[in-house]
C-alpha cells in the first residue's frame, strides 16, 4: 500500500518523532512524494527540530504541516496530551506534487495544472476566502481541503511548516497534480428542521424577512407551534444554524443540499437575524440543528462507499471530539470503520472543503481528502 501513518504520544519530542517517523519508514520506505506532519502544542516549540528529523528519516519530496490543539491517527485522537502524527504517500512515477506557500506569489502557483490543494493556515493572518476566489478564477473547480492551525489563541502563536521552513503566518500546503487520485468529502454534521423559506429581504449577512415575514418571527413560530419536536427546540437553544441551498433547481431539499452557517444573533426590534455569511435576496434557506447523533450519522453517511481509498487526511473541528460526542476518538474510529486506511489529521479552527463545487471555510465540520493508488 502506497500510504502509511503513525501516531506517537510520547512526551519527549525526539523520542516521539523517532517512533512515528520510524514506523512510517518501515511501512513505506524512504523518499515518499508527500509527508503531512501535525503536532500538539506540547511539541510546537520544537517544530523545527521535529520537521528536520522527519525530513532526515523519510526524505520526502514535500512536507507540510502545523501545530494544533489536538492531532489524530488511526482510531485515535490525542486531546490535551502530547502527540505527533505523521502521514506519508507515494503516488507513483507520473504523479506531481509541489509545495504551496501563501501569500508568497513565487510559491503559490504550481508548475502544472493542479487537481487539488492541501492547505493549512494561520487564522489570524490568512484570509482563505480571498485565496479561494483567486484560485477559482485561475483553476476552476480546484478542490481545497485542510484547515486552520489551532495551537494558539492569538496572532503569532500558531506554527506552520513547509519543507525546512517554519512560519507563524499565512498558509502552507501542497498542490497535487496529474497522477494523484484524490476525492474530497465534507461532513457538516447538521440536519434541517422546519420548512425552507425564500429570503425576501436581506442586507449582506442580515436576514430581515423570510417569505414576506420577519425572520425572527418565522423562527419563533417554528419553535412554538409544534412544527418541530421538543428535542429540536432544545437544540435551537443550544446553538442554531442556517443552511443556504446550493442547487435551487431541486424540487426538495435534504441534508447535504445546504451550505451550513452559524446564526450569530437576532434583533428583536426589527425581527432580523444575522448569520455567518452573506445571504442573497431570493435564496432558499432552512434552519438547521446539530447534535452528537446527527454529526455521527452524517459522517457515516458521507464516508459510505469510500472503502476503496488507500489513505486519507482528516481535518475535524476543534469543537468536535470529546466536547461534542462525550467520548474520545469518535471521528478517527468512524473513519477507520468506513474507510480502514492510514489516516492523519488535526483539530482545526475552521475547516476547508468544497460544497457544491465551491470551496468554503466551515465550522464543526469534518473535511477529508481520500486517496487511491489509481
List keywords for this structure.
2 domains, 374 residues, 6-stranded mixed β-sheet, globular, alpha+beta, 26 strands
Number of strands: 26
Report strand order across the widest sheet.
1-6-2-3-10-11
Distance between the termini: 11 Å
Radius of gyration, in Å, reads: 21 Å
Average pLDDT over all residues? 93
Contiguous helical run count: 9
Tell me what portion of residues adopts beta-strand conformation: 35-45%
Number of domains: 2
Stretches where pLDDT is under 50 for at least 5 consecutive residues are none
Largest sheet properties: 6 strands, mixed
Helix share, percent:
10-25%
Shape: globular
Walkthrough of the structure:
- The structure is a single chain.
- The protein has helices spanning 13-28, 41-44, 47-58, 128-138, 215-224, 230-238, 292-303, 321-325, 330-338; strands at 3-8, 34-39, 62-67, 70-73, 76-79, 84-89, 97-102, 116-121, 144-148, 160-162, 165-167, 171-176, 181-187, 191-192, 197-203, 206-210, 213-214, 241-245, 258-267, 272-275, 284-289, 311-317, 343-348, 351-355, 358-362, 366-372.
- The chain is of the alpha+beta class and 374 residues long.
- The chain has 2 domains: 3-188 and 295-372, no CATH class; 191-289, no CATH class.
- The strands form 4 sheets. Strands 1-6-2-3-10-11 form a 6-stranded mixed beta sheet. Strands 5-4-23-22-26-13 form a 6-stranded mixed beta sheet.
- Strand 16 and strand 17 form a beta hairpin.
- Helix 1 runs parallel beside helix 3 and helix 7 (292-303) packs parallel to helix 9 (330-338).
- The N and C termini lie close together (11 Å).
Amino acid at each position: 500500500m502506497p500510504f502509511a501513518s503513525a501516531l506517537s504520544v510520547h512526551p519527549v519530542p525526539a523520542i516521539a518523532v523517532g517512533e512515528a517517523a520510524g514506523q512510517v519508514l518501515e511501512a513505506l520506505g524512504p523518499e515518499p512524494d508527500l509527508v503531512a506532519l501535525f503536532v500538539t502544542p506540547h511539541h510546537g516549540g520544537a517544530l523545527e527540530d521535529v520537521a528536520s528529523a522527519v525530513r532526515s528519516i523519510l526524505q520526502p519530496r514535500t512536507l507540510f504541516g502545523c501545530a494544533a490543539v489536538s492531532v489524530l491517527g488511526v482510531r485515535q485522537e490525542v486531546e490535551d496530551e502530547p502527540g505527533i502524527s505523521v502521514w506519508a504517500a507515494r503516488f507513483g512515477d507520473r504523479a506531481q506534487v509541489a509545495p504551496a506557500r501563501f501569500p508568497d506569489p513565487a510559491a503559490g502557483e504550481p508548475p502544472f495544472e493542479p487537481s487539488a490543494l492541501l492547505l493549512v493556515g494561520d487564522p489570524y493572518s490568512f484570509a482563505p476566502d480571498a485565496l479561494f476566489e483567486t484560485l477559482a478564477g485561475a483553476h476552476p473547480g480546484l478542490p481545497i481541503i485542510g484547515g486552520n492551525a489551532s495551537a494558539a489563541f492569538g496572532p503569532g502563536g500558531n506554527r506552520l511548516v513547509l519543507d525546512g521552513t517554519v512560519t507563524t503566518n499565512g498558509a502552507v500546503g501542497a498542490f497535487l497534480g496529474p497522477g494523484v487520485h484524490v476525492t474530497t468529502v465534507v461532513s457538516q454534521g447538521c440536519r434541517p428542521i422546519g420548512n425552507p423559506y425564500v429570503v425576501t429581504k436581506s442586507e449582506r449577512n442580515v436576514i430581515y424577512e423570510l417569505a414576506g415575514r420577519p425572520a425572527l418571527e418565522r423562527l419563533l413560530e417554528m419553535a412554538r407551534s409544534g412544527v418541530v419536536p421538543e428535542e429540536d427546540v432544545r437544540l435551537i437553544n443550544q446553538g442554531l444554524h442556517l443552511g443556504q441551498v446550493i442547487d435551487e433547481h431541486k424540487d426538495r431539499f435534504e441534508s447535504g443540499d445546504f451550505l451550513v452557517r452559524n446564526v450569530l444573533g437576532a434583533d428583536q426590534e426589527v425581527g432580523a437575524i444575522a448569520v455567518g455569511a452573506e445571504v442573497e435576496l431570493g435564496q432558499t434557506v432552512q434552519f438547521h440543528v446539530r447534535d452528537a447523533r446527527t454529526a455521527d450519522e452524517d459522517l457515516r453517511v458521507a464516508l459510505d462507499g469510500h472503502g476503496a481509498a488507500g489513505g486519507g487526511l482528516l481535518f475535524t473541528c476543534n469543537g468536535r471530539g470529546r466536547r461534542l460526542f462525550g467520548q474520545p476518538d469518535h471521528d478517527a474510529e468512524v473513519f477507520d470503520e468506513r474507510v480502514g486506511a492510514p489516516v492523519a489529521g488535526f483539530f482545526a479552527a475552521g475547516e476547508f472543503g468544497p460544497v457544491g463545487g465551491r470551496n468554503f471555510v466551515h465550522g464543526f465540520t469534518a473535511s477529508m481528502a481520500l486517496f487511491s493508488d489509481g
